[in-house]
Write a structure and sequence with these properties.
This protein has 90 residues and is mainly α. Helix content is 57%, strand content 0%. The chain contains five helices and no strands. The chain is elongated and about 65 Å long. The model has no long low-confidence stretch (mean pLDDT 88).
């Protein structure tokens, strides 16, 4: 893989970090660069771009939604300095 192809691939990953090796292979093929997916992964790893799966976040349950609304309604009239009392910036 040429240095030019590596730069092109890294720029594409910077634009869209969730792009897959298969999609990178297709976009490089449009530029007449033939590279295997494993080569793409190895090249990205050498350049500090490692494949990670984003953590799944649980959806809010009805119980949690109700608790949030209750908290918000109870604290509607709390003065601004109350919230600043516990801030990290002190």
């Amino acid at each position: 893989m040429t240095a030019r192809a590596q730069r092109r691939m890294l720029n594409e990953v910077k634009k869209n970090p969730r792009v897959s090796a298969r999609d990178l292979k297709k976009s490089l093929a449009h530029a007449n660069i033939s590279v295997d997916e494993s080569t793409i992964r190895k090249t990205l790893n050498k350049n500090g771009v490692h494949g990670r799966t984003p953590r799944r976040k649980p959806l809010l349950s009805r119980k949690n939604i109700a608790a949030r609304v209750k908290f918000a309604k109870e604290h509607l009239d709390v003065p601004q300095h109350y919230w600043q009392k516990y801030s990290v910036d002190r």
